[in-house]
Write a structure and sequence with these properties.
The protein is of the alpha/beta class and 275 residues long. The protein has 2 domains: 172 residues, Rossmann fold (3-Layer(aba) Sandwich), CATH 3.40.50; 94 residues. Helices cover 49% and strands 15% of the residues. It has 11 helices and 7 strands. A 7-stranded mixed beta sheet has the order 2-1-3-4-5-6-7, sandwiched between helices. α5 links the parallel β4 and β5. α8 runs antiparallel to α9. The protein is globular, with a radius of gyration of 21 Å. 29% of the residues are buried.
Length: 275
Amino acid sequence: MTTIALFGAGGKMGYRLARNLLKSDYEVLHVEPSPAGRERVKKDLGIDCVDQAVALAKADAVVLATPDTLIGKISHQIAPSLKAGTMLIILDAAAPFAGHLPDRKDLTYFITHPCHPIIFASEAKEAVIKDHFGGIAARQSIVNSLMQGPERDYAVGEAIARTIWAPILRSHRVTVEQMALLEPGLSETIGATLVAIMREAMDEVIARGVDPVTARDFLLGHLNILMAVTFNEIPGAFSDACNKAIEFGKPALMRDDWKRVFEPDEIAASIRRIT
């Protein structure tokens, strides 16, 4: 049996993982520095947290469900207590990509991150529809990277990842560099920014006199079909009028060199800001 030390068990992310790990056969030792977090884990999940030293002494794998800005500090703090062969599991590529992990060649570094449930969910149950983040009812895909360690450890890390992010749609293996392209590059620098712009555009239409509910229904309804066609969820094509709007709208909204955000130096700069 693999013994897992879950750091940050009472936090927003750690609590999600603790809840899913309860359904598994793993022995889990929960570590949470905050009194409020420890109380939450005890009250809601019936779990007693343990001292950090106790958890590290027994752990085969350590999951750091902590903010990106603390990964470097915490990983260096606990490194002297980790026995050779221990797997350190990080939930985002930012800190590993930035070189913030300890120089311990005898440790395994495994990175895993959720894709979150896709917009075109095949399940129609109410619980699935409401699970936008994933890890409760809606299936989601995950990306994983074995940054260092023996190849056999990939299967060990992936099994833990499938447990903490369950239920799973697909599991993808990527490099740390590819994961950094996906986030922050694709999902945040591009995706989150454009979504924020769409929200600002909706608010502008409302400010110009359109009823708020009408504007929201109109935009989200159109996004449903526009995305279904664009991402080949259904066969179809945009109208000539829509294609003309895209042709003239793109240069008005986007710089010609916008794809530069995926260049290695830009990804590195973005991650430096995050960490």
